Amino acid sequence: MRFSQLYAPTLKEAPSDADLVSIKLLIRGGFVRKVAAGVYTYLPLGFRVLKKIEEIVRQEMNAIGSQEILMPIIQPAELWHETGRWDDYGPEMMKLQDRHERFFTLGPTHEEIITHILRNELKSYKQLPVSLYQIAMKYRDEIRPRFGLMRSREFLMKDAYSFHDSWESLDEAYKKFYSAYSKILERLGLDYLVVEADSGAIGGNESHEFNVLAKYGESTLLYCDCGYAASDEKAEYLFKPIVQNRLPAELELVSTPQSRTVEEVTAFLGVSSREIIKSLIYSGRNGYVMVLIRGDEELNESKLKASMNDQTLTMATPQQVFELLKVPVGFVGPVGLPNGIEIVADLSIKGLKNAVGGALKEGFHYRGILPERDFKIGKWLDLKMVKTGDACPKCGKSLKSAKGIEVGHIFKLGTKYSDKMEGSVTDAQGNAISYVMGCYGWGVSRTIGAIVEQLHDKDGMIWPLEAAPFDIIVTAVNTKDEEIMKRSVEIYELLKKWGYDVLLDDRETSPGMKFKDADLIGIPVRVTLGKKLAEGIVEIKSRTEEKPVMVSVNDGYGPIVEEVERLFARYNPKSVLKPEDE
């Protein structure tokens, strides 16, 4: 490809609303253009990278025997009502009506569709296991589309589904997908961490996330040297109850005017946030529930939804709370709570004596609260957001944390969908059994952002070999010099014959602009023909090395091919940025 014919409009500056370095570089490098919040067009360079990543994913899926299909993006609501996910999935689901007023969704995922298809096809256990995948666009109405390609409303995803007659068969497939996902990341040369994860609205009893490590990753990962690793939505900890060497006090109503938040109450009463019981009201499919957690801890909503088996749970609005309890949010508490509202409590308040909490009366709190004496708790649960320094649930050592970008997620769905949608086969004895399912997602377009977020420097992107838009750029410094152009074209054609994907920079622009664009775009190897060509010298430089190598072409172009092969063999795309550089 000649650069003069390539549509790659590079920019000196990124748009002011670009929030992460990855989307800044992708826009500046002419890879993508923003159409609307969370919606992007892939220009030729971006599309080339997208297709290369897609092909890596396809190869690894085919290698484990998964077969490619293509399902519709638009899905009828009736299928989602069968599983109950029409409401469970939440406001991120893009819903629409056709001219006949039938409801549809632009598919955020395809569990219902694939289960519907195979329940009409699979009859006997002898047809199992089956593994099918597709690579297609998905749609989610993100409340705050951000982080460029990593949290978009429209994105390219590989989703695979496996069907089995036993859990043992599912376990085997799960291991294969786990291995395949690891190979994808290893082929891309990325540093990554696999963690236990929350299954969310997808469901299932076990799932793992594959995260690319990055300074500004959107996910917080907790891990321990013993091998335990989990996302912050899933992470557990070794609970140790508080031991307070004090006698329980009598319940005391105290005035706390204008003190609504934990910070305001602790300052006014002169107590620690560890003595505060935060009372939060949530609304779900079964009505309202009060959730209690210690004042110095943060509630993990993912754990709450999983523990209550209700993905529709959302925090009640101040207006809803006032209509329910006739008191502003800041004075809500468990003592004297009306019947019909279940109380669930995080383990952090176990052992508290003489705690402080809202009194269900505006301007007042209670001192001396003793859980179980002053109110009854329906369920004790682990609901806190685990953080750095908490005790590892496996070995008790302090947990460490890292930032990551989720690119892959695998789930053991079990019979969640086959039970609800009546998907079954007959076993060896002729009995109908629900088939056991697995689900395996990979964010193809998201991987582009993850790569750039991890692999870049102050000059631009540093693509891994298998994802780079081009392998080599041949830079003709002066296109008006006939000898330079003649030799540049010859080398360009030679490298193509050797199987390399080559870009010839034949633009009539300054050498500085050509070098800057080559670094910005991040092509692994640059072959430069400039003034030194008069001495028979061509410069060859790896994107990951500081200095070019001088190669003589007086006796032919063989040394160029040799040097290119040597550079490719030692190519090591790693970010060299220091914190202050960004």
UniProtKB/TrEMBL annotation:
Keyword Ribonucleoprotein: no
GO biological process: prolyl-tRNA aminoacylation
Top-rank EC class of the record's enzyme: ligase
4Fe-4S in keyword set: no
Catalysed reactions listed for this entry: tRNA(Pro) + L-proline + ATP = L-prolyl-tRNA(Pro) + AMP + diphosphate
Keywords: Aminoacyl-tRNA synthetase, ATP-binding, Cytoplasm, Ligase, Nucleotide-binding, Protein biosynthesis
GO cellular component, one term: cytosol
InterPro entries tied to this protein: aa-tRNA-synt_IIb, aa-tRNA-synth_II, aa-tRNA-synth_II/BPL/LPL, Anticodon-bd, Anticodon-bd_dom_sf, Pro-tRNA-ligase_IIa, Pro-tRNA-synth_IIa_bac-type, Pro-tRNA-Synthase_IIa_type1
Coiled-coil stretches noted in the UniProt entry, renumbered to this chain: none
Localization (cell): Cytoplasm
EC number: 6.1.1.15
Quaternary structure and interacting proteins, as annotated: Homodimer.
Entry text on domains: Consists of three domains: the N-terminal catalytic domain, the editing domain and the C-terminal anticodon-binding domain.
Name of the featured protein: Proline--tRNA ligase
Organism: Mesotoga infera
